């Protein structure tokens, strides 16, 4: 039981979960970018290079997506 409580505290206190909770619109836009092939959250061979190559297109898409109501 204490292990579960510690795990929950770690998940709640992690910066990533706090950021995701504080900005659901950004998470939605990232999900749309991934669906369009502008971003890949899967780690693997070539993923970093692909993400870097798509950075300008992704930045433009994110700007447009975040501007939507």
Keywords:
mainly alpha; 5 helices; flat; 69 residues; 0% strand
What order do the helices and strands come in, and which of them pair?
Blueprint: H1 2-13, H2 15-22, H3 24-35, H4 47-53, H5 55-67
SS summary, helix count: 5
Query: Biggest sheet, in brief?
Result: none
**What is the CA-atom radius of gyration, in angstroms?**
16 Å
Terminal CA distance reads 43 Å
In terms of DSSP E residues, the strand content is: under 5%
The 3D shape can be described as flat
**How does the helix and strand content classify structurally?**
mainly alpha
DSSP, total strands: 0
Describe the protein in words.
This protein has 69 residues and is mainly α. The protein is built from 5 helices and no strands. Helix content is 75%, strand content 0%. Helix 3 packs across helix 5.
Task: Summarize it.
This protein has 69 residues and is mostly helical. The chain has helices at residues 2-13, 15-22, 24-35, 47-53, 55-67.
């Amino acid at each position: 039981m204490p292990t579960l409580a510690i795990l929950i505290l770690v998940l709640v206190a992690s910066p990533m979960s706090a950021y995701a909770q504080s900005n659901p619109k950004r998470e939605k836009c990232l999900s749309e970018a991934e669906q369009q092939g502008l971003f890949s959250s899967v780690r693997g061979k070539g993923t970093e290079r692909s993400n870097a190559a798509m950075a300008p297109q992704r930045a433009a898409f994110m700007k447009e997506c975040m501007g939507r109501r």
